[in-house]
């Protein structure tokens, strides 16, 4: 049985979706990856676009809350934003909760009017998440 990892953020629209996509693309043989939000905000089209640029299709993933996931117990829960870290729900004692925050691409993009500059915000976080997922074993302890 593979180790289960849940990426949790506020709305499961961008960062946690990208992390799940990278997990499935890079480490699916070692881990089962899921993502969810404390709330459900729908998928972010810019996140889908920049992940597609990197060769990872996340368009079929669903924005969902914890209650909608196919399993409810995880070996690890990784919060990828401060709000999720502060409002992380209860998980059984066997679940190890880790916070590894990433900047919020939609918020970063608000500083730019040019679409390419806005997309660069998403690309930056996409690439940071990729590096994190590639080295995820080191973070799990």
Question: Can you lay out the helices and strands and say which pair or pack?
Answer:
Elements: E1 3-9, H1 15-26, E2 31-37, H2 45-53, E3 76-79, H3 82-86, E4 96-99, H4 105-109, H5 115-134, H6 136-140
Parallel strand pairs: 1-2, 1-3, 3-4
Helix pairs in contact: 1-5, 2-5
In short:
The protein has 141 residues and is an alpha/beta fold.
What does this protein structure show overall?
This protein has helices spanning 15-26, 45-53, 82-86, 105-109, 115-134, 136-140, and strands spanning 3-9, 31-37, 76-79, 96-99. The protein has 141 residues and is α/β, with parallel strands linked by helices. Helix 2 (45-53) crosses helix 5. It is globular and about 45 Å long. The two termini are 18 Å apart. The mean pLDDT is 95.
> DSSP strand (E) fraction?
15-25%
Oligomer: single chain
The arrangement of helices and strands along the chain is: EHEHEHEHHH
Main sheet characteristics: 4 strands, parallel
Q: Using the alpha-carbon principal axes, give the shape.
A: globular
Sheet with most strands: strand arrangement: 2-1-3-4
N→C terminal distance:
18 Å
Count of DSSP strands: 4
Structural class: alpha/beta
DSSP helix count? Answer: 6
Point out poorly predicted stretches: none
| Cα Rg | 14 Å
Compute the average pLDDT.
95
User: In percent, how helical is the residue content?
Assistant: 25-40%
């Amino acid at each position: 049985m593979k180790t289960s990892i849940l990426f949790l953020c506020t709305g499961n629209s961008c960062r946690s979706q990208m992390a799940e996509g990278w997990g499935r693309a890079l480490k699916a043989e070692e881990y089962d990856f899921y993502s969810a939000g404390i709330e459900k905000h729908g998928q972010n089209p810019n996140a889908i676009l920049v992940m597609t640029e990197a060769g990872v299709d996340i368009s079929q993933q669903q924005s969902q809350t914890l209650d909608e996931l196919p399993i409810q117990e995880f070996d690890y829960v990784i919060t990828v934003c401060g709000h999720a870290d502060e409002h992380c729900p209860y998980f059984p004692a066997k679940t190890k909760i880790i916070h590894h925050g990433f900047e919020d691409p939609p918020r970063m993009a608000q500083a730019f009017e040019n679409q390419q500059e806005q997309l660069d915000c998403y690309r930056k976080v996409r690439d940071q998440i990729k590096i994190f997922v590639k080295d995820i074993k080191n973070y799990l302890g």
